[in-house]
Design brief:
alpha+beta; Rossmann fold; 2 domains; 7-stranded mixed beta sheet; 6-stranded antiparallel beta sheet
Length: 335
């Protein structure tokens, strides 16, 4: 039996880890888990382990939580007898000496159909970009961001109302058949992978608070998709008389012959059916709203304690792009 070491920090990988233990224990022994250090969490800001670390402890799997992967990490893998390493949402880059340590290789489960949506936020990028489909790619890791050869992939159709939460569930589930096909090949040293088409590459970046801005000069469909992509954090927000309101749910509606002509950002109506805001293309109907320190509420309940005057033109703020093509200028926000 060969030894497998897992690198990951996000609970999205838990179904995959459970599946490896249940279905592939004759191929690989899950020997150790590397994950991010414990972080402050909750009201008391106590140091708490992430879901991957807690899972490993429950299964009596050794855990390593270095601040950074350094020159000591290859030695640690050699001492563990690591034959192959599997990565999903770990949060650090891997350098060549580490990648060369496991004889069977380092492999990454990435939440897109590479070379599309490389980088930190492929799930959000697919939803905000209104993709008809996405998937999971298993790639050999090289010292370039998500650019390694693709061993296999799993296709995921997206619904028109896909949310970050629903797509995370689909990504987690799609990893299982992918692992079923790939682990035997990896164990047999028969998973070289196919080169990616660099001309087709697109890139994502880390999501920041700045991404919560709403620009009503965009289309209603684009704003609604961004709401689904970025809820619950950082969400999509707009200012109302110096109060920043967060949108919890919204839909896009086409202009009708009864829609009054109004500049983008104009509040057309505010009632139990939602807020209707004019955009450059269609009407954004907001179904849930939240004010600072308040709860997310259906619009009817929100308006009972926070009346909003129709005809007001709401300030638009630029929406930073979440993705870029290979020939676009680099992101100006933190990557």
């Amino acid at each position: 039996m060969k030894h497998l070491v897992f690198f990951g920090s996000d609970e999205i990988a838990l179904p995959c880890l459970e599946h490896i233990l249940a279905a592939h224990s004759t191929l690989f022994s899950l020997t150790a888990v590397f994950s991010q250090p414990d972080r402050p969490s909750g009201r008391g800001q106590k140091l708490l382990p992430n879901a991957i670390v807690s899972w490993a402890h429950r299964h009596s799997i050794p855990v390593f939580q270095p601040q950074r992967l350094d020159e000591s990490t290859p030695d640690a893998l050699r001492k563990l007898g690591c034959a192959a390493a599997l990565v999903m949402a770990y949060g650090q880059l891997f350098k060549r000496p580490l990648l060369d340590t496991p004889p069977l290789g380092f492999f990454n489960l990435h939440a897109s159909l590479l070379p599309l949506l490389r980088g930190a936020s492929p799930i959000e990028g697919a939803i905000a970009g209104r993709f008809p489909a996405t998937g999971v790619s298993l790639q050999r890791i090289i010292p370039r961001l998500d650019a390694g050869p693709i061993v296999d992939s799993e296709h995921i159709p997206l619904s028109p109302n896909e949310t970050r939460a629903s797509l995370r569930e689909k990504i987690a589930a799609a990893c299982l058949p992918l692992i079923d096909r790939a682990l035997p090949r990896i164990a047999a040293a028969d998973a070289p992978g196919a080169p990616q088409d660099e001309t087709a590459a697109t890139f994502t970046r880390k999501i920041t608070r700045e991404d919560s801005a709403a620009d009503f000069h965009a289309s209603a469909q684009d704003i609604a998709a961004r709401v689904r992509a970025l809820s619950p954090w950082p969400g999509v927000t707009f200012p109302w008389h110096n109060v920043l309101l967060k949108i919890g749910a919204a839909t896009a509606e086409p202009f009708s012959e009864n829609t009054p002509a109004a500049p983008p950002g104009t509040l057309l109506s505010a009632d139990a059916t939602g807020l209707r805001i004019a955009t450059s293309d269609g009407t954004l109907r907001i179904l849930e709203l939240q004010r600072p320190a308040g709860k997310m509420l259906p619009t009817a309940a929100f308006l009972s304690g926070f009346p909003m005057q129709t005809g007001t033109v709401i300030e638009s703020r630029p929406m930073p792009p979440l993705t870029r093509r290979s020939d676009d200028p680099p992101f100006t926000l933190s990557f």
